[in-house]
């Protein structure tokens, strides 16, 4: 069976063939082409054995939403919703967080489970109507670009696009293909080259200490960003070719000046999902409102509103950490640690504002903004230590070894060469980073680089396209010791 | 209650909630226009509005409300 890894040539061929067929058939039937592509993609990537699990989740939510839509009584609706939640969350728990099962989980189960749960909750809340066509609903669940690592989607935004199909647009197909190649470059060049050095540092906690660990962690931040956002570029680029707009998952996260802002820019759809479907309903429950009333009476209006919110956030961040893989190092590194940073940021916001005013520091000055960005970057890196480590113990060991005084040779003798990459690879990595930096610069100024490129002379345009393609091909051919078909977030 | 009266009352609630007498709401006002109105304050603000008008928003309305104008329309439907 051929591979359909997002970074393979066969994936590009798969996309091109289905884009061709999609626009060849009448617009009314285009969703059927997407469904065929999605089912084929699922069978190839996930295996036919996992189809029953996929269908179980899809059928449960489809039937549950239909029943909720038909029922008049609130108690009945609530009972159906409870059954659906138990079944879908139970399936997710069984497939993702139970060790030693004799069967494999469908790909992207943690991502599509959130999308389908959101759909049922939206039907229950009256935000959207229950879908009548089971095959159209199956397309929503299996839509192949998102069946690797999300993004987590909303039914009410996806359904009209999937059902109506898109009119052919040369620009959309071209821009989609450019974005796919750009995503591949981020993965095959930046992420895979960083991965070599990161594996070296994280694989040997005895030899590496001090600056090595710090460098390893910073490189992992770069690797994870290039890997996950690169994957999203391929996913969103693919969808763009079909004229279907998927929600963005990244918005130059390392430009954030606070941790709260970082989470509005990193894995956006996951954060928004947990806010809308967990945090808000939780904060609106009677116990949380009661706590709020008590605290407001005791601490005053402004301060009193905080404890209940922070408690709700604690529950949400625990769940976000747990969602990443169930292990304690994820709960800490992708959950509780971020809760601590966000809450601390909130608590210290006013004192810091007062201090900067007293010291006549302009909070909008470039130097101050840069310092804030560095602060966010290093706080995020501390969470990544847990994310990348096998266990919480290893993560603590890494943090401890980082605190050990820097090895003297690191700065003077360029011992960075020991980390597994030669001059050629480092040069290659630098070019990849320069390209990513340039694209991010355009994004920061809210400009689309592809539109800017379209206005350039053909020679410049094709030189850029060729550079991108060359980087991807070289990255794919050399492999750099890392697995080009493996994306970090595919395992979640 | 007229739409104007709803807006007057909303102005009062928002000013008291955010401790800012300069807030003047319009149909298009969103969380982006009021510095302290972030996602963490959203639910408490919603509950304050619900209490003041003696009505309830559904969770779907809470998560999809586009601006203050939409909020006022929902209030007018319920009271």
Textual characterization of the structure:
The complex is a heterodimer of chains A (492) and B (79). Chain A is mostly helical. Chain A folds into 3 domains: 9-164, no CATH class; 171-250 and 403-491, no CATH class; 254-388, no CATH class. In chain A, 72% of the residues lie in helices and 0% in strands. Chain A is built from 21 helices and no strands. Chain A is globular and about 60 Å long. Chain A starts with 8 loop residues before the first helix and ends in a 14-residue tail after the last helix. Residues 409-414 of chain A have low confidence and may be disordered. Chain B has 79 residues and is mainly alpha-helical. Helix content of chain B is 61%, strand content 0%. Chain B contains 4 helices and no strands. In chain B, helix 1 crosses helix 2 (39-53) and helix 1 (3-18) packs across helix 4 (68-78). The longest helix of chain B is centred in the N-terminal third of the chain and has 16 residues, at 3-18.
Task: Write a concise synopsis of the structure shown.
Chain A has 492 residues and is mainly alpha-helical. Chain A has helices at residues 9-24, 30-46, 51-70, 74-97, 109-125, 134-142, 155-164, 170-203, 211-241, 259-265, 268-283, 286-299, 301-304, 306-323, 328-358, 366-388, 392-403, 409-412, 423-444, 449-454, 458-478.
CATH superfamily of chain B: ACP-like
Oligomer: heterodimer
Query: What percent strand of chain A?
Result: under 5%
Outline the biggest β-sheet of chain A: none
| CATH class membership of chain B | Mainly Alpha
Computed Rg of chain A: 24 Å
What is the string of SSEs of chain A from the N terminus onward? Answer: HHHHHHHHHHHHHHHHHHHHH
Query: Structural class of the helix and strand makeup of chain B?
Result: mainly alpha
List the helices and strands and how they pair.
The complex is a heterodimer of chains A (492) and B (79).
Chain A: H1 9-24, H2 30-46, H3 51-70, H4 74-97, H5 109-125, H6 134-142, H7 155-164, H8 170-203, H9 211-241, H10 259-265, H11 268-283, H12 286-299, H13 301-304, H14 306-323, H15 328-358, H16 366-388, H17 392-403, H18 409-412, H19 423-444, H20 449-454, H21 458-478
Helix pairs in contact in A: 1-2, 2-6, 3-4, 3-5, 3-6, 4-5, 6-7, 8-9, 8-19, 8-21, 9-16, 9-17, 11-14, 12-14, 14-15, 15-16, 16-17
Chain B: H1 3-18, H2 39-53, H3 59-64, H4 68-78
